[in-house]
Amino acid sequence: MTNSNGKLSEEKVFKDPVHSYVHVQDRVIWELVATSEFQRLRRIRQLGTTYITFHGAEHSRFNHSLGVYEIVRRIIDDVFREKPFLNEDERLLCLCAALLHDLGHGPFSHSFEKVFHFDHEEFTQAIIVGDTEVNSVLKQVGNDFPKKVAEVIAKTYKNKLVVSLISSQIDADRMDYLLRDAYYTGVSYGNFDMERILRVMRPQEDQVVFKSSGMHAVEDYIMSRYQMYWQVYFHPVTRSSEVILTKILHRAKQLYKENYSFQTEPVHFVSIFEDKLTLKDYVKLDESIIFFYFQVWQDEDDAILSDLCRRFLNRNLFKYVEFDPSEQMMKMMELRTLFEEAGIDPNYYLVVDSSSDLPYDFYRPGEEEERLPINLLMPNGEIRELSRQSEIVDAISGKRRTDHKLYFPQDMIEKLPDANNEKQKIKEVLGI
Ligand code: NI
Question: Model-level pTM?
């Protein structure tokens, strides 16, 4: 079946709509894909609740993970073939890290992380080094191989060139998710010329640089990312569904803490609610489990839990108005009181949601997280940071944009009887 050098006797391929084909020559990669922990990614959507806004966005983390692997494989095996910069061990290390970089994502990670303070990166590490099928496959390469793969994903691995292929401001992860998310949502903003970018990549000592002749392709990539964030990832309707999902989790936990008797015991949630989640419990979670509970909780006696679940499943979402936390906190306090008096619990039905993104930045000492700059290789051999050469990138460099919205159930407010003293007041304050 396999050769002694760890290669499959015949190359395998996966058909992929973004990269056409994903090629596998290494036995370890083929076996990693077959593990239960990796197959689980088929049951976790790449974009969480975005399918509620863009109905095509049903693609999974499985698709994306294979895509990131394929981009890294092409960089190593095709783009840099004439100038090999990695030995066979580090080549395999890069491929495994690319394939496994999102392994620890759970169902609707974004909301779960917010409510229960999970960290998917910690789970990725734990699955790789823990007692799992993935770990036993990686150990076939060497006893310390799982640890090295975990280090590359955690960005602590000693060879920074290896790390920068998987995570930097222009890496295989970002290139795949932009192209893939654009493809599946059907929006064109995410598209950019990846083939051109791959052609102008050059390995340097500790990072990848880009020949300056390819600068416009890199600019286009930065703009794609910027536009995808605001048009797709932070879409206000998607955020509304996320707000509701978050509140369902809050409500279920609250009821559990109050010893509420559920018609269907939330067995898969018990260890989460009790803060005793083990790796074994975690890898059992997927979106089908979550949907099962939302489905049955629609019929729970608790009015808040059943209402929120119905809203989520039937896309009866909260409406929103713009909100400025620096000026409107008084308004928020007033609304909370009015909601309470009207019999609508503001803890579940009045929610401020904030989204924030920094499109591109170069390293500034002492500011936020360190970001590796994107560097251009000039014709005279000089290395120049991208925003010093590109006016377009300079215009958005280091500029964090934040957006706040106030979410509320407009239908519920409209349904209040006209005689209700608070109804008009609430509508006035919200400006609806
Ligand atoms: Ni990823």
Answer: 0.94
